[in-house]
Amino acid sequence: MTVVPFLSLNKKKSVALRSYKNIDFCLHTYINLGSVLLVNGAKNKHYVSDIQHVRRRETIAMTPVNSLAALKSLLTATSIVHPEMNYEANKISVLNSIKKINGTTTKPLVGSSGLSIQYAIMMGLIHDALEKHPGKAIKIIVPPNCYGGTNDQARRVAACLNLVEVVDLPVDGDNDMVQSIDTILSKIAKEDSVPYIIAEIPTNPRVEVPDLIKLQEVLSKERTTAGGVSAIDPVFILDQTFCPNVHFLGENAILSSVRAISYASGSKFPSGGLCTAGYCVGNIKTENLMEKIESTFKTLRQ
Description:
The chain is an alpha/beta fold. The protein is built from nine helices and ten strands. Helix 5 (about 115-130) packs across helix 9. The protein starts with a strand and ends with a helix.
């Protein structure tokens, strides 16, 4: 498969693209704004829906100020004029704000959207599991009837790797989230698998807050495999988009004693659409995992 990157794309290059049957994709990047991906040839049409799953989130992940710059360029047929801003100072301010809001001291990570953060988290955690627990099954535990983007993302990741499987976490009807987690973790422990839980607080679809003390107890419980050895402790991945200022991860907080990572989608509740980025932050127990997640960002940006 051949991917050809172009910093600029004009009609001549579009015509030339059609004449090269060995070019599958053409990537056109606009510095600081985004990119355009051209899929070449009918043989590559089946990739479109999978690409759009990610791209639709990235495509709409454009701030009003950048959208205005792009529209002005299109309407006037002139070069894009980027608004002046102090990127480094703003970045430092944002990262410090995330630490303050979450009551944490670990390094936060920021991506272009909530979905990109989810992918980075899962890719980083799977990278860690493949290194530390080679050959063991990886279980992504997620409620089946809510978190549309999260469910889709988890299943697409699982479809790429034979060792990764999605496990349904019942949270609706008469099901209690904490009890469901306890039951599933006990089963996964017997199988000697690697458990990653993705959940939201307040939980959907009932928009309720689980018993946090019991949640902490269930996540902290020591379990054993069928062979009688200590099971791998879970990582709790918390979608905190709708309660971003509640302290779950800091010193002596409710989830400080278990491996927990919190993330939020900035395009929703926190900003009212004024920003698009998503972020994640971990507690002290996940510092090595956050390093793996950060390495995923670095790889994707290269």
